[in-house]
Amino acid sequence: MVVFGYHVPKMPSLLVWVVLWEIIGRFELVMLFPPFTQVLASMGEVVTSSSFAEAIRITLLSYVAGIALALVVGIPLGFLMGLVPAADRMLNMWVNTFLSAPLSALVPVFMILFGLGTPTVIVTVFMFAVWIIVLDTRAGVRHITPSLMEMAESFQVGRIERARMMVLSALPEILAGVRLGMVRGVKGVVIGQLLVSIIGVGALFSLYQQNFLMAHFWALVVILFTCALTLAELVARLEKRVQYYAGARN
Amino acid sequence: MQQLAMPTEATHVPTTVVRDPIVEIRGISKIYGSTVTALQDINLKFERGHLTSLLGPSGCGKTTLLKIVAGLLQPTSGQILVNGKPVTGPGRERAFVFQDFALMPWATVLENAAFGLKMQGVARSLREDRARHYIAEVGLSGFEQKYPHELSGGMRQRVGLARALAVNADILLMDEPFSAVDEQTRRKFQEDLMRLREVENKTFLFVTHSIEEAVYVSDRIVMLSPRPGRVSEIIDPQIRADITPDELRRDEAYLDTVERIWTGIKKYVE
User: Fold this and answer.
1) In what helix (H) or strand (E) does residue B15 lie, and over which residues does it extend?
2) Please, are residues B69 and B94 in contact by the beta-carbon 8 Å criterion?
3) Are B140 and B106 in contact (CB under 8 A)?
4) Contact at 8 Å (CB) between B177 and B156?
5) How far is CA B261 from CA A48, B42, B222, B225, B236, in A?
């Protein structure tokens, strides 16, 4: 980042906002914002509480299950759409609709279908994550170099090896989809739990809000944001290594 | 003595002799959809151990014909014989070199070059030895562990060539192999190709749109005319075998042949 011709690293620029937050908190300008130092102090309290451990456990469980389901369904569906034009014509509109639809509105429906518990949250994560994985996989499959498949044919490559080549060829796009899906999945798990509001992080948020523990509330927000960003960064790293070879795709 | 190609009404096809045909094209036609005739009744024979070029303006179906010989495309009618046997698909005796190289970006040069052998079930150590040999043969020693994206276009095509050579096919089918590399690399490549031809004793079928390239490297040039793709002329460039590249570009036979081909091809170029 460059400010008035000076090169400013990203982390210190974050500090500016922290200081601003601290000032607003100290002068009690906005009731919802306790000073940042107070938020940090409550962070220890939040992390060590037993309800937090339980919330994290159930959140992680729903998240991992939802993402796994999205991968298992999304990648094959993307391949189907990329390879079979008829399937693509049938599904493309729906996938795009779900991708841009406000899915939060559907969570109450999931609640009716799946009950006020983890299954609803898993389905919410799935619905948030799966569509972008489908579309990016489809794009990846369509980008497979035709001559590479002809090459496979000319060397009489078997079915399994050919499938492996297709997956590797489409991998850059698939991973981009997975990364975006995982980021959307974090939204899904939080929104799902907030709406269900009796389990996991959602329960904690409700608890803190109802008792007006704003420092605790913000501490939890900061923790969640950090987790989501770290996760996205990890997948991005993996993606970068794959992009590196994909640069040579013709 | 055999007729190489059927004379057509509009063009004159000289009687050419093929003593030992390795590939025979019999009455091949290819129609795309129901209207576009890419190839019409092609009859050709290719001499064993020779380098034959398929030359023609774009749209004359030269790549289509090569892919039919490779078994990658099915003809609408007609038959391909390789070593006297009809072919229905790709086979071990034919190896293809692609215009855009068709390397696996996730695999090293060594893995790419050994790919054909791997698919034939050759054991790892053996196939890697053979791949190394051909990587050296095409002048890429020291690059075995590199990835395609670390190589220039010309070097990538050398990997494609090494992969095709490694499977030890009798026939190398090359689809405009040098069209995606720059001019300097291309010349070097052509010289290397001619040297390889001496060493490897294989039959080459070579698709190109470059007249100079065809005249320089070929024993025989089959000229195709477009819409529909047909054999229009067959030319054997009489270039001395020991000619140096510098002499060549001033050689009279070379210049005459280039001129003759250009005259024949000019009418198809708008």
Assistant:
1) none
2) yes
3) no
4) no
5) 85, 20, 10, 12, 11
Closest CA to B228 of B12, B5, B31, B27: B31
Give the best residue of A144, A155, A167 to mutate against chain B (max B CB count within 10 A): A155
From residue A21, alpha-carbon distances to A11, A38, A223 in Å are 16, 11, 17
Q: With beta carbons under 8 A apart, name residues in chain A contacting B71.
A: 154
CA distance A167 to A185: 23
Minimal C-alpha gap between B120 and chain A (Å): 8
**Tally of CB atoms within 10 A around B36:** 12
- How far is A14 from A6, CA to CA, in rounded Å? 16
Tokens representing residue B12 in the block:
């004159």
Chain A residues lying within 8 Å of B92, measured CB to CB: 156
Q: Tell which of B68, B74, B104 to mutate to test the A interface (max A CBs under 10 Å).
A: B104
By C-alpha distance, the chain B residue nearest A157 is B119
- Looking at chain A from residue 161 to 220, which residues have their Cβ under 8 Å from any Cβ of chain B? 161, 165, 168, 171
d(CA B194, CA B198): 7
For tokens 């948030």, name the residue: A128
Contact B95 A154 (CB under 8 A): yes
Q: Which residues of B touch A (CB under 8 A)?
A: 67, 70-72, 89-92, 94-96, 98-106, 115-116, 119-120, 147-149, 156, 167
| Rounded Cα–Cα distance for residues A12 and A8 (Å) | 7
Q: Which of B72, B100, B149 sits opposite A154 (nearest CB)?
A: B72
Nearest to B243 by CA among B254, B228, B256, B230: B254
SS3 B41: strand
The pLDDT profile of chain A, 250 residues, written as one tens digit per residue, is 566 777 766 667 778 888 888 888 888 777 777 888 888 888 888 888 888 888 888 888 999 999 999 999 999 999 999 999 999 999 999 999 888 888 888 888 888 898 888 888 999 999 999 999 999 999 999 988 888 999 999 888 888 999 999 999 898 889 889 888 988 898 888 888 888 877 788 888 888 888 888 888 888 888 888 888 888 888 788 777 776 666 545 4
Pick from A156, A158, A248: CB nearest B105: A248
